[in-house]
Amino acid sequence: MSEGRESTILVVDDNPQNIKILSTILKSEYRVKAARTGEEALKLVFSDDPPDLVLLDIVMPGMDGYDVCRRIKDDAATRDIPLIFVSALRDDEDETKGLELGANDYITKPFSPPIVKSRVRTHLRLKHVQESLEEQNRVLVDNVRAFAQIGLALSGEKNLNRLLESIVDEARALCHADAGTLYIMDDDGKHLRFEILQNETMGTRLGGTSGQPVDLPKVPLYMDGEPNKANVSSYAALTGKTVNIEDVYEAEGFDFTGPRNYDHATGYRSRSMLVIPLRNHEDDIIGVLQLLNAQDPASGTVVPFSSDFEDLVASLASQAAVALTNTELIHDLRALFYSFIKSIAMAIDEKSPYTGGHIDRVVELTMMIAEAINQAENGPFRDVRFTDDEIEELRLSAWMHDVGKIVTPEYVVDKSTKLEHIVDLIQLIEMRFHCIGQSAENRFLKQKVELLEGDRADEALLAQLEADMTSERQAIRDDLAFLKDVNSSGAFMTDDKVERVRSIASRIYRAGAIEHPYLTEHEVENLCIRKGTLTDKERLIIENHARMTTEILKQLPFPKSLARVPEFAGSHHEKLDGSGYPQGLTDKDLPLQSRIIALSDIFEALTAGDRPYRKPMKLSQAIKILGFMKKDRHIDPDVFDLFLGQSLFLKYAEQELNPEQIDPVEQTGTA
C-alpha cells in the first residue's frame, strides 16, 4: 500500500460543508476521519487508532481550535502528530498564535485543493522521513561511538535542564532502557531529590525542559538517624556502589514497595534495574542514576542489564557528574551575576521614587520586540534571527541601560517642578509674596491713617486709596498664581509667559532698608524653561548618564558573548538623524539592539504613571508621538512598524498600564 493510503487524516470543523469539501479533496489518497467539535476530535486523537495528521478549524463552539492544539501538543503521545490550522482568520496575529502553540502549518479558507493536498503530503512526508531517519540512526550507531558522542554532548551542554535530560536520555539509549530516573543530592546533603523521570512505555517525561516538575517526595538518606540502605537509590548514594538487579520482584535486601505500587496502579511491570552513583571530580556523590527495564533491540523484550552496559553506564555517569558540576557552577555564577545586575538596576530605580520599575518595564518591552523579530516571517526582519547568546546580550543591555544614573544627582532626577531643588523654591516665593502683600497692606494702612488724621481726608481720596489697595492686592495674588502655574504646569512657555516672568522679576520690594527684586536670577532662569522642568545645565547632567553608562560598563570584563553590552546600553538615546546623545551617532552607526532599547525606553517613559512632571499618556497619544519621531528619523521606522503592526504596544499595555490609558489606536502606515 502507498504511503498516502496508509495515512489517516482527521478533519475537525463544526461546518459539515467544510468537512465534505476537505474529505472530497483527500479521500482518494488518504483515509479520512471527521469531527465536528474539539471534544470529539480529542477522543479520536487519543484513541487506539490516532490520525497521522490533523486539519483543524479555529473558531468552533465550546473548545476552540487553539485549545485542541494545546492539548495535542502538550501530550507526549500525540505532540508529534502534524497539525495544520484551517481557518478564515487571516490576521498575522492569529497565524502567529497558532504556530506558537505548536501548529505545523496554516491554510486559509476558501480551500485550494492543490494547496491542501500539497501541504498534507509535505507534512506527512516530513513525519515519515523523520521516523525513518530516527530508526536508521538507532540501528547504525554502535555503543562505543555513542559513548564518545555522549561524552562530547555532556561536556558541551551549558543549559542545566537540557543537561539533566541528556544524562537520562543518553544513558537509556546506550543500554536500551525503557525508563530512567535521575536523583540529585539535595543542598542539605541528607536527601535525594527527583530531577528527571522518564518512562517510554508510559509516555512519561517529567522534569528538565518538559516544564512539568517531578512531584514526588525526596528520598531520605537517613531514617531515625540510621543510614537508609533499604532504598536502592539511597544505598547507592551512601555506599558509592553500583547495583545491578535482574528482577526487582525477586531481589532481596531492598524495599521495592514503590515500584510495585506503581506497577499495580498503571499495569506496568518493573523488572531489571541498574543504579549507579554519580561522582564529581572531588569524588563526592552528587546524585544517582537509575535505569529500568533494559530491552533487547531486536525483540523489545525486557532483559537484564549486562556487565558491559554496567561499565559503560558507570563511565557515562562519571562524565555526567563532572559535566553536571561544571554546568551547575556556570549556572550559579550566571545567577550571581544577574542577581548583581538586577540589584544595581533596582538601586537605580529606587534612587528616585518616580522611576521605580522603569528598568523592569524597559527589559520587558525589549524582549517583547526581540521575540517578535525572531518570529517575523516577512518584512524587513524576515532574515533576522537573534541567537540565544544575542538575546541574553540584549536583555543584559536593557537591564543596564540606565546604570550611568548612579552618578546623577537625585535632585535632578526627581525634579518634578521648575523650582524644585531639594525643596520646591515656589514655597519661598509664596512666603516672599506674602511679605510683599503684607508690606503693601501696611503702606496703604499708613496712608489711610495719615489721611484720616490730617485735614485732607475726604470720601473720594479714601475711596481711591481703597481701590488702589484692592488692585495691588489682586495683582500680587494673580502674579503668584501665574508663577505657581508656570512652575508646575507641563504647558509650553510662550514668549508672552516668559516676558511676564521677567516683568514680575523686575519689580522691587523693600525688606527694611534693603531693596530686593521680586524674583532672583536663579528663579527666573528656572521659571523661563520653555519645556519640561530642567534647565540646559540640568539637562546636560541628565544626558551625561548615557555617557557614564558606557564608561562604567567598559570597565567590566564581559565575556565574548556579552562584549557589546556597553555599546548597546550606552547608545539608547542616540537618534537616526544624528541629533541624539552622547555621541551623535547616525543610522549608519546604530546597531539594531540599540534601536530596540531606544524605542522601549521612550514608550515606557511616555506611558509611565509615576513621572512627576506630567500625567501618564494614553496609548493613542504615545503612539502618535512615536509616529512623529519615526517621521523625524529619531527612532527606527522598521522597529516602530513591527511594534505597531504586531500590537506589541497593546500586549504591554494590558499587562502594565492603567485601564483608563488603553484607548483605540489607529494602526495604519505600517510596513
Secondary-structure topology with pairs:
Elements: E1 8-12, H1 16-26, E2 31-35, H2 38-45, E3 53-56, H3 65-74, E4 83-87, H4 92-100, E5 105-108, H5 113-140, H6 143-156, H7 160-175, E6 177-185, E7 191-199, E8 204-207, E9 219-220, E10 222-223, E11 226-227, H8 232-239, E12 243-245, H9 257-266, E13 273-279, E14 285-295, E15 302-303, H10 307-351, H11 358-375, H12 388-399, H13 410-413, E16 420-421, E17 423-424, H14 426-453, H15 459-488, H16 495-505, E18 508-511, E19 514-517, H17 521-527, H18 536-554, H19 565-570, H20 592-607, H21 619-631, H22 637-645, H23 648-656
Parallel strand pairs: 1-2, 1-3, 3-4, 4-5
Antiparallel strand pairs: 6-7, 6-14, 7-8, 7-9, 10-11, 12-13, 13-14, 14-15, 16-17, 18-19
What would you say this structure looks like, in words?
The chain is of the alpha+beta class and 671 residues long. The protein has four domains: 8-139, Response regulator (Rossmann fold), CATH 3.40.50.2300; 143-329, GAF domain (Beta-Lactamase); 352-406 and 546-661, Hypothetical protein af1432 (Orthogonal Bundle), CATH 1.10.3210.10; 420-533, no CATH class. It is 51% helix and 13% strand. It is built from 23 helices and 19 strands. Strands 6, 7, 8, 9, 12, 13, 14 and 15 form an eight-stranded antiparallel beta sheet that branches. Strand 4 (83-87), helix 4 (92-100) and strand 5 (105-108) form a beta-alpha-beta unit. Helix 2 packs parallel to helix 3 (65-74), helix 6 packs antiparallel against helix 7 (160-175) and helix 7 (160-175) packs antiparallel against helix 10. The radius of gyration is 37 Å and the shape is elongated. The model has no long low-confidence stretch (mean pLDDT 86).
